TrEMBL record, chain B:
UniProt xrefs under PANTHER family: CHLORIDE CHANNEL PROTEIN (PTHR45711), H(+)_CL(-) EXCHANGE TRANSPORTER 5 (PTHR45711:SF7)
Subunit structure: Interacts with NEDD4 and NEDD4L.
Transmembrane segments: 133-153, 218-243, 264-286, 292-308, 320-344, 394-413, 433-450, 505-526, 532-551
Family matches, as Gene3D superfamilies: 3.10.580.20, 3.90.1280.20, Clc chloride channel
Name listed for the protein in its UniProt record: Chloride channel protein
GO molecular function annotation: antiporter activity; ATP binding; voltage-gated chloride channel activity
UniProt family annotation: Belongs to the chloride channel (TC 2.A.49) family. ClC-5/CLCN5 subfamily.
Positions of the CBS domain: 664-728, 754-820
GO CC terms in record: early endosome; endosome membrane; Golgi membrane; plasma membrane; synaptic vesicle
Alphabetical UniProt keywords: Antiport, ATP-binding, CBS domain, Cell membrane, Chloride, Endosome, Golgi apparatus, Ion transport, Membrane, Nucleotide-binding, Repeat, Transmembrane, Transmembrane helix, Transport, Ubl conjugation
Subcellular location: Cell membrane; Endosome membrane; Golgi apparatus membrane; Membrane
Membrane topology: Multi-pass membrane protein
Amino acid sequence: MYSVVIAQAPGMLTQHSWENMKILWLVVVAWCVLAPPAQASKSSEDIRCKCICPPYRNISGHIYKKNVSQKDCNCLHVVEPMPVPGNDVEAYCLLCECKYEERSTTTIKIIIIIYLSVVGALLLYMAFLMLVDPLIRKPDAYTQPLHNEEENEEARSLAAAPAPTGARANTVLERVEGAQQRWKRQVQEQRKTVFDRHKMLS
Amino acid sequence: MASPWLGQQSLGSAAVAMNNKGFRRGSFQSSTSDEDMVEIAGGALDFSITDDDPPLDREMLGGFSLYNGGGMNGTSQMMDFLEEPLPGVGTYEDFNTIDWVREKSRDRDRHREIASKSKESTWALIHSVSDAFSGWLLMLLIGLLAGSLAGLIDISAHWMTDLKEGLCLSGFWFNHEHCCWNSNETTFEDRDKCPEWESWSQLIIGHGEGAFAYILNYFMYVLWALVFSLLAVLLVRGFAPYACGSGIPEIKTILSGFIIRGYLGKWTLIIKTVTLVLAVSSGLSLGKEGPLVHVACCCGNILCHLFTKYRKNEAKRREVLSAAAAAGVSVAFGAPIGGVLFSLEEVSYYFPLKTLWRSFFAALVAAFTLRSINPFGNSRLVLFYVEFHTPWHLLELVPFILLGIFGGLWGSFFIRSNIAWCRRRKTTKLGKYPVLEVLVVTAITAVLAFPNEYTRMSTSELISELFNDCGLLDFSKLCEYVNDFNSTTGDDLPDRAAGPGVYTAMWQLALALILKVFITIFTFGMKVPSGLFIPSMAVGAIVGRLLGVGMEQLAYYHHDWTIFSGWCSQGADCITPGLYAMVGAAACLGGVTRMTVSLVVIMFELTGGLEYIVPLMAAAMTSKWVADAIGREGIYDAHIRLNGYPFLEAKEEFSHKTLAMDVMKPRRNDPVLTVLTQDSMTVEDVEAIINETTYSGYPVVVSRESQRLVGFVLRRDLIISIENARKKQDGIVSTSVIYFTDHSPPLPPSSPSMLKLRSILDLSPFTVTDQTPMEIVVDIFRKLGLRQCLVTHNGKLLGIITKKDVLKHIAQMANQDPDSILFN
């Protein structure tokens, strides 16, 4: 359906509907990420009413937690058993502070797992780049300029400016490879700026 | 017939001065009407007949009549291959300064074109509506992304911080607090202990008591800290070196119109987010606030690629980045309005009202997103949110001002020593070992921090505890007062005598203060993401709390003194140590960053107490005065200067009596200015000039003899266009003549075909005369965001002033090393 529209629309509009599609996708993805925590039914372990009661007369302080709805979150409903006789309850409860709190264990779990997997993936990739990559790849062109960097730096930056896309990549793999090489060069450049020459960020 | 056209042009050149060449036709179409031209014709006539050279005006005339279908197109065989701008033309190279004027006029042209097209078809109308709407949509997306990332950072950093101490058995993903969330076995005294949470000694040797268990916990704490910081620095080094540091000095520079490619890219975003969590949880004396601004700006920059309007225009993109910075502070402190003001006061360079509203919206969305994630489980956006409303007395302003003085002193001390240390790192061998440096500092921090419980906990938690007002419900050492239950009536708690716990806490806090003061100097600037809001606030909060407790005890024991009589009688609640901590935090933060308005707004948004605005203002102002008296730069400006970024400070006055001719290049002994002529140079000549010089742009003149200015052409555009023409255009050889006029110059018919480069020529370069005072030139550069300005004398081109020259001149006038400005 979309593709038909795109095929028929003139140039400028095509680009535009592509943009709209991209945005649409982004919104959908953002919604998917954000929606589950909002919609997730509040399981019993995700709400609590916590009452903190300070020391009173000869009774030591105590913390009460109970699984009650927000409107029942007060000292009378939560503090059980009541440590003071009936006529003192009001005075005791006046000192207590009750707070209704919510959390989402699903969100916490998902976020921690996402975070750990990202760190794991990055570490694996770093290990790959440091250990495996030099073995399967013979020393090639892109590491060459590293040694005589200072002299031809100007020339290289000039040459790199119009994005050397002379050899059009055919397969997806080659294109990924090309992107990776470009990225590596960029990181190398950044590393030189920051760590070696101390031009920035020091 | 000629005179009205000429009149239009010569006045038009002022009116359309902002118009860039590339879109000239569109603008003429909409702005030309006959009445205008007739009106102004007479006054402008004399411009055209003053010189022997064929006036520029004729080209304009030609261009216009060409557009209208008039004759004069004798050069029709010349291909107008530059109708569509080449990819790359109009972009900038890495480490270059953008031309705000050019970018803004390009955006206006684009907008005009869309607006004029929108009447033609429905699609175009929809396009124009969505174009107008795209800015707000972009803000929405930035807010959502920044808020989500802040939530991720908050939750994971909290978890990893607690991982240094132990593990939750009921689910490894819970931090200490959430592990004991539902446990019924927490007691009033040990409210953070529960059987589900086991410390490392309990996990490894089965019990948590005794010296061996303590040593084991100590060892695990240091080990985890080292592992986290090692991972952080390795990831930064391996994937995105730009992700280190706080990022605010660089963002300030970028927003002022500098290009640092990759600084706000995808990898920087990922690595900064990931390593920020690691750095914060390693227990180093650093905070997440500054880096969060960087993260939000990365989000903004990446999302800009979705919209043509922002992808292609560097000035528009900077407006978005200003708003993204606001969103970053909004989630870092849970202070949306404070974020907007922070962006306005501290970060942004060009901040029109439209950006203010967009920032407002982005900050709102970001805060809302973070709130719906609810990272701390307290329905607040920050850990150290406090809410108290005890009143303060006018006399307390004296200690508040004292705190302000301390904040200013500490701020300038910190800036000086940190800059000295960073300079040492930059210039000596120390900078060769970034990984080792991080590890050593982490090891020292962790070894010294563990024995003291106030440094062992995370800095946010420490601040939260210091801000807290002790009530009956609190049971910590800091709140161990001698309670007299007979006088207690409900919530109203009088000042009480300090118990032994408070005294222990006092000297522990004093030790923590010493550690924080010194270790932060060495931490800020290491090659891991590091902000300094939180450490500065911690220092101030500790001092404030110490002073507050001191005042409280003074008032308790000496309530008969005249200064206390009347407002602090026995049994009254008059001094709140938590408030002192808050004021101290604001003072120290103000001393370091030199913020005032945004700082106070951030602080009262943090605390929700409008009644404390005056104490906070007093402290922030005093601290700024004291700090400015000692050294005039804030920490970010000091780092900008240390690194030599080309940042033209808008706050300082330029008050020297120099003239434009004293600053312009070429200097008296230099070779003459390199110029291009409009219609007599060959491709070969131009290429030779490009290769021989490194200037990033060349003025174009009518002829070398007359030196009358035509326009300005950028080196990058020139290189790209010539290269492209050699590849794609037939008959372009080294001897082809390049011309910037509208019509090819008369040449013998045997000569090779010519190259027309008018479309890359900036016809409206900014000029001043050589007698213009530098204060005006500096003002022009600041306010218009110029990149270069040409200097004329009697109408002839004499020289050029670039932003770099202005910066060097300012540095020279301030007796600094002018060569410290590294990038042009």
